[in-house]
Specification:
36% strand; alpha+beta; Alpha-Beta Plaits; 4-stranded antiparallel sheet
Length: 97
């Protein structure tokens, strides 16, 4: 198995929605965990910012997952809850402890 790819998505969530969104993530990620190429996800919070730290077999697997979420309308619904979002792709693992 390759080192895969790490995706870090930072969401700036509207303050009035952040508690509900954060509470809903455990249920939402059940679908994510079933997608091809998915390895793991960790979600951390600081105020109204959420970081989704995901590992996938490849960036193509992640892109296919996002396309699936987009087709379902999930991305539009999520976008309405956010002030902004950034995505970083980290393709090279240096070390794991």
């Amino acid at each position: 198995m390759s080192d895969g790819v790490t995706i870090i998505m930072t969401m700036d969530v509207k303050p009035e929605i952040v508690d509900g969104l954060a509470a809903g993530f455990p249920e939402m990620i059940k679908d994510t965990a079933q997608r091809p190429g998915f390895r793991n996800i960790k979600i951390v919070r600081n105020g109204n910012k959420l970081n989704l730290i995901e590992e996938w077999d490849s960036e193509a697997d992640y892109d296919a997952y996002i396309a699936w979420r987009t087709e379902r309308g999930d991305m539009d619904a999520m976008g309405a809850m956010l002030n902004g979002v950034t995505k970083e792709v980290w393709p090279t693992l240096i070390v794991r402890a």
